């Protein structure tokens, strides 16, 4: 679904974040200080076919082919992050799709110059997040664990 059709809830959830090939080359993973829990990560060069699956919602858009070529042009760091509200927070940290509209202090706002090379991807809502996590990761590649900081992040009552 489009971002504006997604319904958000403040509950424990997971999102899919990927540092795109330009972001990997430019060290954008250093910018990721989500303060959430990383439960899956791998480095992959997606095939064109795989990139088409990832961007299937955009099939009819003029930039679909270019975006798929680009996503499959080099290593991508694929991640799943977990925490309360992480989907919306991830989008906020990433910034708007078009760099001209993304705020200073966001990853795209600080690093991207053109829309087709915008450094990073993040699921735009709960439905998309589920689909993307399933596409990129097998269940056994995701890890559930407790961190020592959690009780300080969430409290324990
Ligand atoms: N994109 C593009 N031109 C556009 C809009 C999007 O090249 O006019 C690319 C851009 O890399 C974007 C991706 O297609 O990240 C997916 O578009 P979407 O609208 O889903 O934006 P996102 O969710 O990545 O912010």
Automatic annotation (TrEMBL):
Annotated compartments: Mitochondrion intermembrane space; Plastid, Chloroplast thylakoid lumen
Catalytic activities: a ribonucleoside 5'-diphosphate + ATP = a ribonucleoside 5'-triphosphate + ADP; a 2'-deoxyribonucleoside 5'-diphosphate + ATP = a 2'-deoxyribonucleoside 5'-triphosphate + ADP
An annotated Gene Ontology molecular function: metal ion binding
Leader sequence residues: none
GO process annotations (BP): nucleotide metabolic process
Residues at which ATP binds: 20, 63, 91, 97, 108, 118
UniProt record similarity statement: Belongs to the NDK family.
Function noted in UniProt: Major role in the synthesis of nucleoside triphosphates other than ATP. The ATP gamma phosphate is transferred to the NDP beta phosphate via a ping-pong mechanism, using a phosphorylated active-site intermediate. Shows the highest specificity towards GDP.
Official protein name in the record: nucleoside-diphosphate kinase
Organism: Eruca vesicaria subsp. sativa
Full protein stretch here: 57 to 213 of 213
């Amino acid at each position: 679904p489009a971002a504006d059709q997604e319904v958000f809830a403040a509950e424990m959830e997971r999102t899919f974040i990927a540092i795109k090939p330009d972001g990997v080359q430019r060290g954008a993973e250093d910018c990721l200080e989500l303060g959430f829990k990383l439960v899956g990560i791998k480095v992959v060069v997606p095939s064109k076919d795989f990139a088409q699956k990832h961007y299937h919602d955009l099939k009819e858009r003029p930039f679909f082919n270019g975006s798929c070529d680009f996503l499959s042009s080099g290593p991508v760091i694929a991640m799943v992050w977990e925490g309360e509200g992480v989907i919306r927070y991830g989008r906020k940290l990433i910034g708007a799709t078009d760099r001209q509209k993304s705020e200073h202090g966001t990853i795209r706002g600080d690093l991207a110059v053109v829309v087709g090379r915008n450094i990073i991807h993040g699921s735009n809502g709960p439905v998309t997040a589920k689909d993307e996590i399933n596409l990129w990761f097998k269940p056994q590649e995701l890890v559930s664990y407790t961190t020592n900081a959690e009780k300080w992040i969430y409290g324990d009552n």
